[in-house]
Task: inverse folding
């Protein structure tokens, strides 16, 4: 029937008073071909999902995103082909604004007319529902005749009964326009037509999942709940099949903005409602039956995964009591309410994502009453009670916050922290102040608030999450019982299947361990490993997304180990062309190599699809490498720049607007990224948490972590986007996509091998904080929360958390107090007095030790000291007004403190867990679980001490930290004295361990000595225990914290094994290349072997000669020469960047489009070349790896800087070592000549070796601790004299020194008199013989001498008495005065500077000619002054060595 016939029939029907026949006369088969289910499914898959709409083109020329191309440009009615010409009128095109199909959203074609761009930011629907629709389709929903099509398009009642989160106008009436459209919509859609992402290589899961079949059956057949009916879904799969694809012209490709607007008209249509009734769809019988895949939970009901597409009914999770159980995983704070995200166990034993909004929190404020009322700043005799405080403060709070009532209570609380003037226990006034009052919700009471009746208020800075976990005693992720839930209050505010609100925090209760419900195991996690490939857009100077790989792992256990070889359930890579189009054949290559790939025309549809896949997968955890600061940061910024409306699917909170500060240069990007991702945990294997578990890594690059953690190699593909091969060659582009896919899988494998998820979960449960906090690496935060919980349980008021501004103000105040004005000697005394000493480190006996060395180590020294001596906030009496004073140890028999009791609990629990690990009946999985738990307990206990000494900690207590470290030093000193009393020699000691030379060459004898020594030490203490940690067969000590040793152990067969152990040497630092480390290891293995030292040295020389030949002949791989350097700030911020190789390479990499930030580790190689400095010749390692590269490592640079220097330091204390021969072995002829000349100089070959160290360093370094020479003028001016230099106080003239204040000339006699007086004062100070204890916590000063020699006279102190002013200090002081009048030093300006380099008052320096002239004119005056100093130096015995007294025994 043509259009004219239709109009004629319509007129006749109207005249007859009925139009029913008009709508019933046509059958769908007159317009469409009837096909069966299989044919239709096959055609739809081919058209939509193979990205190949040109027949037999194999995806090589064009791409398609799966959108139908309707000839009518989205008109309201469907039509026959004979009306095509009429439909091209502009009038018809405008109708797309009322019912454009949602599937056009995904179409990168301009074949559909688009509305104006200015309407993009208005109301929009969630396009991600296109990916949800396949799971919920059924024939009953759409199988209706034309006269009964109303339920599909006009569900007015359902829409009006729901809260419209997006504020979309609701359908209110049936209009003729709608009826006219429905006229031709009686097509048969019995087929369950899924949007089959399998065909785009999504791994046969999304529409064939047995869990989806089970979900559809379990849905209630009753009427849809408000939550279910409120979610609007697109109908991309329900449109009639297109007759034939329409080829697009090049100029018809759609803009990125049009993709959003296509969906906007349907969302705002007032007469059409396309919402899909998800519960109704569940009534349909699925077309394909699959075997049900049951998800087994240990000690829990069988549960299954339900894709996050629709909302579930209240009856599935709760009974009439409106209570249910939820396992919370993450949280966020929104408008003074707490949003909890997690999993809910439904009545049919399935797990669904859930969001619970907890409202009406109250901040607990504790007002400290004064002893007596304060009037006009003066205390009266009127005693104050908490009731008086209430009378004063209640009216003020009610008025300030607009409250009508206030809940108050008198409560006895204790206080034991660092604020002075707070009583240990007192009756406080407790006030419950709502977090969300009627007005001034963002204002908080100042912590220093005072009144007539109260002196302080506590609890003003507590946030909602802290308040929640403390009040409800929630210790990390756990099962919660939610009571009195409101299922109708919140709708479409999240991407979770269940959304409820709770009006009182008391309705949320953790399920106790004693209840049977506690045996329900934690729900398994869904994890997405994400890898992002980016490219720098040089024109816009920003990173763009080229490809994203998403690997989804389902049913990961929380507390059990995950198999590192686990394969992902779903894997897909999304990409877009680098230039205008893809190189031909890319899709064919991907299919051939079985790489799941989906292609897009540009970046915006790629990001749209990525958001859809994330919502479909609904992950609980994102796993990635450098996730927060690079990958997710770039993704979100690109979404922000391209105005992708579905960005919020990366979290679980539904958002229409970006955070206010997002995209601004001064915004805290990391914080905003976490805010957007709220509800999904971020597991970055390279952040602080990941680095703490992989301490052997240096750069924490992905290949290095893969090697260290998984013991597997992966050579990364270096990408240079400027190379045109990636736009022209499909194989080259495919290699990039494959690399991105491999990186995603490697990242997940590393995370599973590290067990970072299960370990962080255990740490979180111990600390009682949030899982996201632990994954972020906040160790201080964990300590803070575990102490908050413990002290809160014991009725203590906890310290308020300082804001950043308060912390900076306190630091500035402390610095001002520390830098109060004083004379020069007072400042010196303060500098000598160490404010806070850490662990004791003995001076090592440097050299090679060939006997067996025992390393005796105290187990958990600091936690054990806290328990041993009952050190706690609650037990140690300390002077809070002077935190520098060392407090006394609590008396024996006092009540156990909170901190020792907490540590004791952790230690005992770990001991019990370790016993379970030894149980022979335990399975491997159980043992792995126990191992994770004992690691978490150990990490928590050992880190507790850190909160005492960390300045920014909430529980910072310097006196307690000083007491702990002081007892540690005392214990280590006692251990050394005990060893020496037993005839043993301690060669080194560090904090909690001592190295003892057993003087044995048999390991059994050495071990027996260690066991006997262990018994003698342990019997001195109640809890402290020492044990044999290591046995060294050879030990090479270089300096403090620098040594190498052969560690001996025995295998199961009793065979002795030796392993090289290195600490602190050059080879452990990242700035030395792998080749340098390999050579250093060879050298150490030789000198620590049983070989004779001379023979070992000869083998080392030969080895070095061979390596030198290989290096110069370029026979060693380029990656052996790589140097890693970590940037402490942005590369453009370095002032001396030209001389810094890492910075130069970073700038080059940034120009190539790489993401380089502060904290990035730069890997580079110094290449050879005749021109330029090493920094200018530094290149990224990737530039040397290609076979076509002509760059070569600079052999001479590496031999001298990377090999000679560290090897020389290793061998310098080996008997028979010849540094000249070492240089010759490395081919460093110029260095060998210099060394030879130094050892054979003109003075008999001894001055170059025997000259004192002080003569080889500058005056600025040598005399930095010497006092200045102060001169007085008759005008009263007192200034420092520093020689012929520029000064603000004096100037040198041809006649001597002239005061700038009064222009008085100081004559020579005046200067020499003051000089001699100054010298005598120092000599007098030396002869006073004052001695001082070197232990800063003792600080005893006396002139008395102990009968035990240098031992301190103070009772119980183990310090050593030393002269307060030594002969060395006096000698250097005289030399400094002598240098001031040395004419040659003045000419060369080699004197100690008078001003510091950063001193802003430093005057301009004198010119060279002026200095020379003044020096010669004042030569005579200077010689007179110099003779005064020389007179005293000639009497100083330190400069002479009396050989006669040393060798007079030879005359006898």
Result:
């Amino acid at each position: 029937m043509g259009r004219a016939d239709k109009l004629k029939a319509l007129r006749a029907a109207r005249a007859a008073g009925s139009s029913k026949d008009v709508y019933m006369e046509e059958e769908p088969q007159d317009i469409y071909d009837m096909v069966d289910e299989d044919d239709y499914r096959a055609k739809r898959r081919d058209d939509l999902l193979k990205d190949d709409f040109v027949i037999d083109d194999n995806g090589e020329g064009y791409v398609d995103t799966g959108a139908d191309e309707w000839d009518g440009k989205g008109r309201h009615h469907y039509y026959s082909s004979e009306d095509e010409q009429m439909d091209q009128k502009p009038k018809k095109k405008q109708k797309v604004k009322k019912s454009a199909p949602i599937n056009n959203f995904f179409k990168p074609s301009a074949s559909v007319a688009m509305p104006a761009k200015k309407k993009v930011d208005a109301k929009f629907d969630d396009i991600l529902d296109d990916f949800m629709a396949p799971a919920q389709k059924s024939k009953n929903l759409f199988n209706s005749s034309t006269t009964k099509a109303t339920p599909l398009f006009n569900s007015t009642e359902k829409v009006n009964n729901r809260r419209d989160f997006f504020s979309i106008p609701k359908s209110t009436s049936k209009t003729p326009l709608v009826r006219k459209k429905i006229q031709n919509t009686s097509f048969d859609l019995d087929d369950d037509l899924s949007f089959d992402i399998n065909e785009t290589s999504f791994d046969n899961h999304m529409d064939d999942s047995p869990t989806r079949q089970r979900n559809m059956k379990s849905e209630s057949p009753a009427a849809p709940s408000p939550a279910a009916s409120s979610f609007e879904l697109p109908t991309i799969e329900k449109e009639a099949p297109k007759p034939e694809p329409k080829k697009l012209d090049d100029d018809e490709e759609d803009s990125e903005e049009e993709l959003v607007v296509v969906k906007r008209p349907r969302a705002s249509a007032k007469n059409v409602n396309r919402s899909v009734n998800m519960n109704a769809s569940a009534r349909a019988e699925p077309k394909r039956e699959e075997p049900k895949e049951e998800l087994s939970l240990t000690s829990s009901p069988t549960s299954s995964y339900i894709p996050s597409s629709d909302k579930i009914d209240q009856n599935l999770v709760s009974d009439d009591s409106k209570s249910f159980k939820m396992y919370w995983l993450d949280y966020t704070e929104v408008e003074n309410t707490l949003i909890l995200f997690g999993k809910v166990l439904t009545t049919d034993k399935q797990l669904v994502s859930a969001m619970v909004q907890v409202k009406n929190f109250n901040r607990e404020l504790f007002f400290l009453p004064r002893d007596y009322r304060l009037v006009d700043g003066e205390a009266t005799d009127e005693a104050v009670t908490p009731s008086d405080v209430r009378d004063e403060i209640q009216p003020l709070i009610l008025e300030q916050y607009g409250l009508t009532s206030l809940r108050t209570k008198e409560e006895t609380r204790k206080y034991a922290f660092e604020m002075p003037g707070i009583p240990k226990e007192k009756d406080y006034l407790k006030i419950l102040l709502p977090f969300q009052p009627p007005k001034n919700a963002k204002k908080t009471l100042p912590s220093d608030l005072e009144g007539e009746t109260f002196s302080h208020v506590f609890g003003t800075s507590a946030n909602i999450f802290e308040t929640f976990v403390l009040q409800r005693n929630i210790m990390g992720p756990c099962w919660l019982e939610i009571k009195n839930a409101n299922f109708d209050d919140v709708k479409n505010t999240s991407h979770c299947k269940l959304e409820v609100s709770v009006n009182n925090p008391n309705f949320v209760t953790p399920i106790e361990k004693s209840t049977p419900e506690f045996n329900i195991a934690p729900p398994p996690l869904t994890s997405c490993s994400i890898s992002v490939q980016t490219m720098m857009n040089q024109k816009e100077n920003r990173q763009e997304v080229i490809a994203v790989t998403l690997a989804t792992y389902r049913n990961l256990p929380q507390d059990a180990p995950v198999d590192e070889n686990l394969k992902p359930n779903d894997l897909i890579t999304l990409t877009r062309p680098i230039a205008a189009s893809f190189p031909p054949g890319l899709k064919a290559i991907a299919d051939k190599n079985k790489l799941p790939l989906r292609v897009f025309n540009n970046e915006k549809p790629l990001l749209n699809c990525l958001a859809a896949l994330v919502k479909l997968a609904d992950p609980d955890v994102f796993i990635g490498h450098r996730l927060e600061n690079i990958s997710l940061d770039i993704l979100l910024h690109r979404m922000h720049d391209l105005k992708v409306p579905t960005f919020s699917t990366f979290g679980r909170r539904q958002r229409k607007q970006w955070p206010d500060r997002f995209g601004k240069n001064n915004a805290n990007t990391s914080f905003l990224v976490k805010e957007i991702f709220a509800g999904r945990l971020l597991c970055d294997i390279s952040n602080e948490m990941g680095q703490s578990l992989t301490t052997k890594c240096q750069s924490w690059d992905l290949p290095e972590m893969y090697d260290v953690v998984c013991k597997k190699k992966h050579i990364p593909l270096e990408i240079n986007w400027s190379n045109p091969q990636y736009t022209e060659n499909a194989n080259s582009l495919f290699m990039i996509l494959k690399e991105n896919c491999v990186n995603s899988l490697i990242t997940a494998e590393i995370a599973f091998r590290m067990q970072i998820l299960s370990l962080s979960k255990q740490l979180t449960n111990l600390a009682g904080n949030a899982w996201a906090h632990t994954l972020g690496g906040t160790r201080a935060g964990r300590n803070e929360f575990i102490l908050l919980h413990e002290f809160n349980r014991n009725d203590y008021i906890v310290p308020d958390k300082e804001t950043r501004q308060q912390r900076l103000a306190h630091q500035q105040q402390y610095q001002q107090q520390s830098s109060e004005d004083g004379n020069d000697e007072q400042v010196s005394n303060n500098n000598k007095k160490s404010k806070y000493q850490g662990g004791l480190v003995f001076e090592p006996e440097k050299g090679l030790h060939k006997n067996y060395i025992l390393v005796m180590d105290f187990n958990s020294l600091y936690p054990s000291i806290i328990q041993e001596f009952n050190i706690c906030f609650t037990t140690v009496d300390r002077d809070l007004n002077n935190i520098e004073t060392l407090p006394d140890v609590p008396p024996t028999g006092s009540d156990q403190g909170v901190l020792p009791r907490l540590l004791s609990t952790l230690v005992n629990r770990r001991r019990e867990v370790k016993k379970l690990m030894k149980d022979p009946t335990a399975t491997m999985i159980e043992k792995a679980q126990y191992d994770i738990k004992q690691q978490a307990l150990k990490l928590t206990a050992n880190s507790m001490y850190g909160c005492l000494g960390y300045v920014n900690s909430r529980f910072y207590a310097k006196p307690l930290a000083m007491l702990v470290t002081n007892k540690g030093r005392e214990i280590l000193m006692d251990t050394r004295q005990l060893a020496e009393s037993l005839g043993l020699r301690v060669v080194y000691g560090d904090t909690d361990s001592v190295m003892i030379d057993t003087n044995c060459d048999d390991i059994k004898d050495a071990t027996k000595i260690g066991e006997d020594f262990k018994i003698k030490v342990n019997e001195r203490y109640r809890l402290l225990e020492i044990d044999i940690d290591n046995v060294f067969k050879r030990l090479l000590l270089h300096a403090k914290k620098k040594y190498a040793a052969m560690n001996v152990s025995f295998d199961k067969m009793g065979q002795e094994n030796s392993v090289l152990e290195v600490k602190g040497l050059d080879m452990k630092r990242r700035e030395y290349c792998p080749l340098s480390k390999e050579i250093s290891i060879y050298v150490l293995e030789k000198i620590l072997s049983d070989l004779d030292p001379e023979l070992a040295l000869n083998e080392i020389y030969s080895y070095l000669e061979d390596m030198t030949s290989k290096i110069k002949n370029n026979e060693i791989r380029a990656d052996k020469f790589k140097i890693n350097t970590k940037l402490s700030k942005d590369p453009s911020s370095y002032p001396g960047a030209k001389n810094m190789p890492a910075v130069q390479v970073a700038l080059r990499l940034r120009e190539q489009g790489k993401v380089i930030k502060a904290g990035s580790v730069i890997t580079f190689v110094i290449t050879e070349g005749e021109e330029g400095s090493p920094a200018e010749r530094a290149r990224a390692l990737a530039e040397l790896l290609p076979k076509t590269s002509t760059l070569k490592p600079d052999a001479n640079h590496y031999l001298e800087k990377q090999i000679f220097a560290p090897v020389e330091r290793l061998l310098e204390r080996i008997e028979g070592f010849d540094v000249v021969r070492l240089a010759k072995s490395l081919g460093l002829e110029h260095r060998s000549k210099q060394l030879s000349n130094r050892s054979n100089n003109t003075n008999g070959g001894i001055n170059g070796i025997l000259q004192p160290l002080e003569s080889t360093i500058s005056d600025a370094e040598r005399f930095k601790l010497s006092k200045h020479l102060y001169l007085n003028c008759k005008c009263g001016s007192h200034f420092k004299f520093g020689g012929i230099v520029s000064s603000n106080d004096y100037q040198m003239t041809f006649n001597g020194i002239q005061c700038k204040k009064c222009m008085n000339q100081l004559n020579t006699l005046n200067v020499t008199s003051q000089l001699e007086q100054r010298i005598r004062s120092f000599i007098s100070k030396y002869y006073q013989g004052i001695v001082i204890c070197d232990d800063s916590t003792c600080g005893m000063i006396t002139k008395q001498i102990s009968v035990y020699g240098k031992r301190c006279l103070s009772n119980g102190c183990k310090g050593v008495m030393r002269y307060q002013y030594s002969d060395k200090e006096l000698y250097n002081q005289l030399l400094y005065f002598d240098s001031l009048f040395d004419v040659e030093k003045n000419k060369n300006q080699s004197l100690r500077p008078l001003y510091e380099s950063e001193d802003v008052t430093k005057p301009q320096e004198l010119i060279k000619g002026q200095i020379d002239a003044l020096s010669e004119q004042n030569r005579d005056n200077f010689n007179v002054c110099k003779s005064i100093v020389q007179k005293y130096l000639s009497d100083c015995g330190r400069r002479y060595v009396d050989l006669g007294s040393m060798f007079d025994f030879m005359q006898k």
